[in-house]
What we know:
Radius of gyration: 24 Å
Number of helices: 17
Shape: globular
Largest sheet: 12 strands, mixed
Distance between the termini: 40 Å
Low-confidence stretches: none
Structural class: alpha+beta
Helix content: 40-55%
Number of strands: 14
Amino acid sequence: MSAAISFDQINQFQNNLDAKKEAKVIERAVTHQGILATSADFASEVTMNPVFSIDLATGDVADQKQSGRCWMFAALNTMRHKLMTNFKMSDDFELSQNYINFWDKFEKANFFLDNVIKTANEPLDSRKVAWLMATPQQDGGQWDMLCALIEKYGIVPKSAMPETFSSEKSAQLNKFLNLKLRHNAAVLRELVAADTSDAKLLATKTDMLNDIYRMLAYTLGEPTQQFDFEYRDKDSQYHIDQNLTPRAFFQKYIDVDLTNYVSLINSPTDNKPFMKTYTVEMLGNVVGGRQVKHLNLEMNDLKQLAIEQLKRGESVWFGSDVGQSSNSQKGIMDTSLYAPDELFDTDLSLSKGARLDYGESLMTHAMVITGVDLVDGKPTKWKVENSWGKKVGNKGYFVMSDDWMDQFVYQIVVNKNFMPDEIQAAQEQEPIELAPWDPMGALA
């Protein structure tokens, strides 16, 4: 059934508005100040006091600048925390995000080209091919993708491969890299349509990757192969470790068994029963590398496992929808921060599952939980290390209310050894494959 809007209806709507005594006051406030400022609740700033019963020392906050690399910043931050503690590194020590960024973009290019060949017999306007061509590669990623890169290429300190213009401001590189990949996609689809041999396809793809490597070397710098690690610790003692490879550096200084760290999600939707594992079609970066795999759990399970890991002195990587009910300057993420429903006198509610199903929310940003405030054994708020520099929040740290975590956190990564036996057993299941556009395939 369809019906046009009548002028009688419009007149009635205006009469209803005129009947609200507060309407003009609200209109004046919102037209001058905007929705968020007018609906802000000062009480949220009081309750989100940045004091926590468990508070890990994690050093200075890093800055991803104008790039979408939060997932790798957050993951590398969890690793540098351990290194800083064990080797008394200075608070501003960082691992090289640019080194990981180089190999991520190179591997994503190969991953994309492989998927182009696999889908070459499908029409261009099929949903799967259209999804693939929409974004051949981007800055974002997920935890398992980071692990796949480290397992293959290792890690280096930031001093061994610092940031460049294109790593900090990635828009230009992404534009031309995606243009090149779409050009390559057109060539590969034409070759498949002409029944080209697999050997010829592979040789053509190899030539394409050679061009991609050169583009990345020009913009991000040539990837570090061997380096000297030189630093002074917090006791002013000088150290130098010479002729290290990236894999040797990871093994010696990070020494983390990445296979122990698993992704847990909270997706309360009908198509994802709890205590089942999931993967996402065409999601990844390293062909033949670690598979993206999530175990779906109740939110209380995620929170208890995060608390357990914090109690053992380890920070927690997590993914969330950071733009919801948050103020980046004040460093507050709280469902009580704004009251737009009260401002507009209308129902704006959706359940967490409905927000995922209807496209209102998905994971957009990864950060690190470094503390929690427990009152009578229950969490009330969480300390969050962001990657937007020191000028936002409390020197770059945010406060997340427990209810905000319930509503807008979708993923955490924990050491599986901290999980109860029944959850460990569930995590070992073979994953159910989700469609490429499923919200749990969103890249932070």
